[in-house]
Amino acid sequence: MSDMQLRARRPERVVVLALDGVYPFELGIPSRIFGAAGGHYEVLTCTVGGRPVRTNADFAVAVEYGPEILETADTVIVASVPPAHLPVGLPEEVAAALDRIRPDARIVSICTAAFVLAEAGLLDGRRATTHWHVADLFRRRYPQVDLDPDVLFVDDGRILTSAGAASGVDICLHIVRTDHGSDLANAVARACVVPPFRDGGQAQYIEQPVPESGAASTAATRAWALGRLDEPLALADLAGHARMSLRTFARRFHDEVGLSPGRWLIQQRVARARHLLESSDLAVDRIAAEVGFATGASLRQHLHAAIGVSPQAYRRTFQQAR
Predict the structure, then answer these.
(1) Alpha carbon of 24 to those of 76, 81, 183, 231, 294: distances in Å?
(2) pTM of the prediction?
(3) Given 2, 20, 57, 301, which residue has the most CB atoms within 10 angstroms?
(4) pLDDT digit string, tens, across residues 69-79
(5) What's the pLDDT at 313?
(6) What torsion do the CA atoms of 173, 176, 177, 178 make, to the nearest 10 degrees?
(7) Could you give the domains of the chain?
(8) What sign for the dihedral angle of Cα 272, 276, 277, 282?
């Protein structure tokens, strides 16, 4: 029996590494999200020495496992710690624990845990993200990492990094979606009462001046556009629906979403195309038309830019998973 067949017969083992000073909220995200996925995942928690660790709250966390459990993980998630705990040079125990991770295991950081992966050299030459508040510090320490502080998470193949705090929910849902498709990810999101996919990136959460009292929102126009993705929507169409000038609409849209209207539309079209590739047998050209791309070639280009695979390869992955 092949490794793929064996893996398909058992739950994916997710091991969460809790370091000293860990944030309790982020530590609990993997168990909550993957635990709602109907038995597809097994979540275990460990520490570098198998001992209880202090959290940044007024309690400690005791776990059943030490670092040896990392050797059995299909996915390892490192939970975040406060900035004061960010390493400059990995402690020997932490480095030894990370060395136990299998070469084929997926490695994920939540929030500031990207500093831990960077210190271990795991992010060298890779695109990554972390909490916007410590982005400048991260850049100074790790110029060899291609940091993108504007996104909620980065999937760079084997290594995935997420932004601040609740973006741990986004990246765990992304993993469920990647492994098992949108239907399961949406069901998990409903069970956890969270959005299955959040628009935009961290830019919408960075401290900004308070909008003028009574300023109109672009939310209604975004909902309107989502119902018309098969149509050729231009910036003028969106601004006209919102009853704003082009300049005002573009500025307000970016302030609320963290993306330009054009980038947001492409993101939504790719997301819809992925769902259709997973859930239907429609031809690629037909899917392109359904989501508003002019040609199948345009869909192929945008899908490859987003996730690095062709529509055919993406569809094969989820047909095998069904």
Answers:
(1) 17, 9, 29, 45, 47
(2) 0.74
(3) 20
(4) 999 999 999 99
(5) 87
(6) 120
(7) 11-192 (3.40.50.880), 212-322 (1.10.10.60)
(8) negative
